[in-house]
Here is the input.
Amino acid sequence: MRSYAVEFAGTFFLVLTVGTAVLSEAPLAPLAIGAILMVMVYAGGHVSGAHYNPAVTLAVLVRGRIAPATAAGYVLAQSLAALTAGPLALWIVSPENTQPLSPSGHQLLAALVVEALFAFALASVVLNVATSASHPDNSFYGLAIGFTVLAGAVTVGGISGAVFNPAVALGGTFAGLFDWSALWIYLLANLAGGAAAGLAFRVIHPHDVPPPVTAEEGADSPGLTVRSGT
Here is the structure.
């Protein structure tokens, strides 16, 4: 339950920050979002692995560092956090008018592409800096993860909204940032990017792929290689 609680808390603050920063049109919204992810990763990485993102959880599952039952619990905790934080962000800001993002035509295809690419990049960074045996006891993992989101938000925020996270998409939809008809775009692209990152890690690092994790072994060690004690 410790891991699930940390996943809920980290995802909650991430989604709340996204919602309030974007709805209030904060000029430094990308920096705020990257920063809250960074600090939450540092705060919870030693407990849960600090996924805060179903696409990252899927990547870690494909990579072989988390049991399926534990992964399902993570996704449930992340989704509940998003469902709580999204409406709260909308209530806090109470914008007079919102224009939910609903890509169509060329923008829809572009959104699918950039969301899949940056979800892949984010999940790949997590796998390489937080689960790889090549980086034991490093202190840069939170910075690397947070700055990946910051770079993506600045680069493609105007194209897709820079979600890279199905939980953020779900919470953002409840906050009025995305149209319900567009939710599938982010779920499909982000999960595809996460799965591809897990597969790519297995191909690039064949000697760093552990045997299948059982529920008993994987409950407390789904993420950080050394900091989680595995």
